[in-house]
Amino acid sequence: MEQLAERAWRPHQACEDYLSEFRHCRSFRNHFHHYYTYGTAPSCQQWKEDYHNCRKWESHKLAEAKDALQKSERRRLEEQKNFTPVWKLRQAPPGDWHRPLD
Amino acid sequence: MILHVSVMQPMVSTPTCSVSHTPPFVFHHVFSKVYKDRHFSCEDCDGTVSGGFDAATSQIVLCQNNIHQQAHMNRVVTHELIHAFDHCRAHVDWFNNFRHLACSEIRAANLSGDCSFTNEVSRFNFGLKAHHQQCVRDRAVRSILAVRKVSQEEAQKIVDEVFDSCFKDHAPFGRIPHGNKDAKFAYREYMNRDRYYANL
């Protein structure tokens, strides 16, 4: 039963989406924007690896492929949060967001 | 809970103020809609200001006398929506905490397209390697000086203090949207978010 649940796991996006991210990352336009923003070339290899791991999982259900993909996505998410926020986040929007104007 | 602020409908254009269809602008955490007639206001403004966000009324002000091109309008709307997004998702003390103000201005300059290569060249600011960051710093300082009575040095100091943190904060896009493709991919990631968190 557990095995069935394991095998039912899906990557968070279609494998073709990883490929399109890789191609976009490698494009001249993206290289230009990255250099203009950071002064360096972008690193695109991870998208390619994720695509291959995604395909390996979809075709052969290899556990290593799934683990690698999950690890990569978690790392990507961590990188997005790799800063100390200046402010405190809300639990709900401001109460007066929809208050009628006078 | 998902904060979904969406400016979806093509805007009605008036003789002096016309806002184009803006792609869905997505906020995280709590559902809260933006309505054209409640959250936007077209007004005549002093000087060369293009727009602003009024936290007291939760309203975006668009300066109809200073915006003459659709691309400029798109950029101003995006810029102010980022302020609105920050107001909605965080306890931003706009009036008393200059660090908060600076942070939102850094994010707005970074993520709205204000500092694109083309826009900078049109201002005769010719820079290439990492110039985007310099532009973001400069425009954040300018924005602070436009709304608060502080010296240039003070504004610069505050921006420098919070820059590293706020430049990395790409919410709600997850990346800096340099063009339509970036925006498209950011939106795709947003639409996949439930699948995302379930499968990590």
From TrEMBL, chain A:
Subcellular location: Synaptic cleft
InterPro entries linked: Pants/Emi1-like
Pfam families assigned to the protein according to its UniProt record, in alphabetical order: PANTS-like (PF11326)
Name of the featured protein: Synaptic plasticity regulator PANTS
Family: Belongs to the UPF0545 family.
A GO cellular-component term linked to this record: synaptic cleft
Alphabetical list of PANTHER family matching this protein: UPF0545 PROTEIN C22ORF39 (PTHR28052)
From TrEMBL, chain B:
Annotated keywords: Hydrolase, Metal-binding, Metalloprotease, Protease
Domain of life where this protein originates: Eukaryota
Keyword Transmembrane appears in the UniProt entry: no
Leading EC class: hydrolase
EC number: 3.4.24.-
Keyword Magnesium: no
A GO term, aspect molecular function: metal ion binding
Any single GO BP term: mitochondrial proton-transporting ATP synthase complex assembly
A GO CC annotation given for this chain: mitochondrion
Record-stated family: Belongs to the peptidase M76 family.
Name the UniProt record assigns to this protein: Mitochondrial inner membrane protease ATP23
Organism, as annotated: Poecilia latipinna (sailfin molly)
